[in-house]
Amino acid sequence: MEIRVSGILCQATGGASTVEVSGATIGEMLASLALKHPAIQEHLDDGVAVAINGEIYRDRTDQVIPKGAEVFLLPRIEGG
What we know:
Order of helices and strands: EHEHHEEE
């Protein structure tokens, strides 16, 4: 599946704004991403948000990603 990354996360993917990864769930997708781009692990450890078809998921590694979904990975924004 293709995911889009933004902001500081692009630096960790070598400047790529889209990345091809595998996985049926958010957790599997993030693990695949970290294997392909180890520099992103620091950002994953800090926390990221995953948007699937416009709905944002935080801390939901078991969430299934539908085939053909539009997936965005966003750095977590601190504050309230």
